[in-house]
Amino acid sequence: MIPLSSLYACLFAVFLVLVMPGPTNTLLAAAGLEHGFRRAVRLTVAECCGYLIAISFWGMFLLELARAVSWLPWAVRLVSAFYIAWLAIRMWGATLDLAGGQRRTVNMRTLFVATLLNPKAILFGGTIFPAAAFASLTGYLEVMGAFVGLLFPIGSLWVAVGAQLGKGRLAWLKPAYVLRGAAIVLGAFSVTVAWSAVH
Fold it and tell me: Where does the signal peptide begin and end (predicted)?
């Protein structure tokens, strides 16, 4: 059983990372833009499967390796902090392809593979999820159940944003401002992860 304080802290971090623009979320929004909400929302199932496989692999692999290499969890946290900071810097100057109405075909396979290879999975499995999540079946089911409970609404929200952009209902929403706001949150999160690595 994972302490509630640890679970809440984990879920807050999961929420922050899941809601941020990235490869999977951009594909979900593109699918919403191209196909509409009702046809594209099913792609969140592919997102869920990709994350479950990748997070489970990274979490269990890193847990086993950490028993032999004691400094590994610290190193993964530090690398993750630098990666998040790099994402924040890139996002600050980025523009969404969706703003120009650029479309691409997104299917279940495309989304599954993109999520499977998404670096966020390493961040979840190696840094954000507590070690107890991979130490017992109960802890694993507890954390993964809460993760899935957040993933579907957030993924659906990205599909809905794409669908609304496709209908021209979010003309007031400036993608550059959204991305810069997300960059600030990511930057703050990278500092938090780095702080947890050195203390």
Answer: none
Domain that holds residue 28: 4-198
Helix segments in 43-174, DSSP class H: 43-68, 72-92, 108-116, 120-123, 137-166
- For the ranges 17-21, 98-102, 182-186, the maximum mean pLDDT occurs at 17-21
Q: How many structural domains is the chain composed of?
A: 1
Name the residue among 190, 191, 178, 198 with its Cα closest to residue 17: 190
pLDDT greater at residue 169 or residue 102: 169
Residue type at 152 in one-letter notation:
F
| Residue among 14, 60, 56, 57 nearest 155 (CA) | 14
- Residue 44 and residue 40: Cα distance in Å, rounded? 8
pTM flag (> 0.70): yes
Question: 88: number of CA atoms within 13 Å, CB side?
Answer: 19
> Rounded to an integer, what distance in angstroms lies between the CA atom of residue 128 and that of residue 150?
14
Structure tokens, 168 = 């021209």
Closest CA to 175 of 107, 67, 98: 98
Question: What does the pLDDT look like over 151-178, one tens digit per residue?
Answer: 999 999 999 988 887 676 666 665 556 5
What pLDDT was estimated at residue 98?
A: 46
Supply 135's token pair.
């130490």
